[in-house]
Amino acid sequence: MDAINSWEAMMKEKVRIGMIGLGARGMGLLKGIILNMEDVEVAAVCDLYENRCEDAAAMIEQAREIRPFVTKQYTELLAIADIDAVVIGASWTDHIEIAVASMEAGKYVASEVGGAYSIQECWRLVEAYERTKVPCMIMENCCYGRDELMVLNMVKKGILGEIVHASGGYHHDLRKEISNGKENRHYRLNNYIHRNCENYPTHEIGPIARILNINHGNRMVSLVSMASKAKGLREYIKNENGEADELANTEFMQGDIVTTIIKCAHGETITITLDTTLPRYYSRGFTIRGTKGMYFEDNRSVFIDGQHDDFHDSWKEQWGNVEQFREQYEHPIWKKYVEEGVKGGHDGMDWLVFSDFFESVKKGTQTPIDVYDMASWMCISALSEDSIAMGGQPVAIPDFTNGKWINR
User: What is the pTM of this model?
Assistant: First the structure.
């Protein structure tokens, strides 16, 4: 009997979880989301740094009056029999290794986002699920964004016509965070020193994959990536910390701008951009282009063919019109959410993605974002690294479903 079927008759009132990785993201989730969910109990916490474990344990004890099990070894956490699920907030390099071990231990997996380091580890992830049948979900909160879900609803209703192209990016000035990586014990710094790739693809790919039915009747088949030179971090460090700073003369491998173009089985193209080491405003650049219209995040606008044609030359005055479409096309998830009260971080997206995950655990059902999504989204990092190293050569994207995408 597989893991899901064995849970069918035992709908749980509460979920007991273990948290692995208690840096900024892990502690933020604990404080802002998980400890505010009455149906979730944090039974154990784990981090390589003892002070992080103690801080998390103290926070849980203060909120719930029960001290969790504390360990620096995640294998000890996975050995606890009555833990139902694991939330992984560790460094990017550890996500898949811990996810595989968690599935093998029979624990539902909620993994924070990031990119893969090799195609082999993505296959390990899929094979672990197919062997154990324990669900594994990448916690891509942007799939639950209000505008992203409204646009998905519009696409499903045919408002934008047949979708031809989509684009997005991680446009986020992270110079301060990266350059302080040693002091803050943050894994991004070493990645930017040693790698050159699309290192954070899932914020943009997740919502686009839903719109293009990736792994559900469509799939990504190939990509090409190019990276600009890497100058932003060194200049920032010299300006902020001076020439004497130990990073001031570091040669960073990570290009300031990485552009990746993906081709899909049904002919659509996707462009994603990594832009984290130059001065700029925050944006995910979410854009959908169809035969009847488009959505553009950066000016929060919808353009419908036949309705907005007169606005071509006056967009500065006319755009920013997304709220005009809200009442008619708001996604049902967000209609209910607004009525009940928006909660949690990242404009409410964190609460929604974790609520969906814990609901799956309680019911013993498959998670709404599954292991095939996780592998196909994360593999973009490893493949972009290969493409960049070969001067922008196209590389094939594996079919982690082994053909099942056609009818899933």
Answer: 0.95
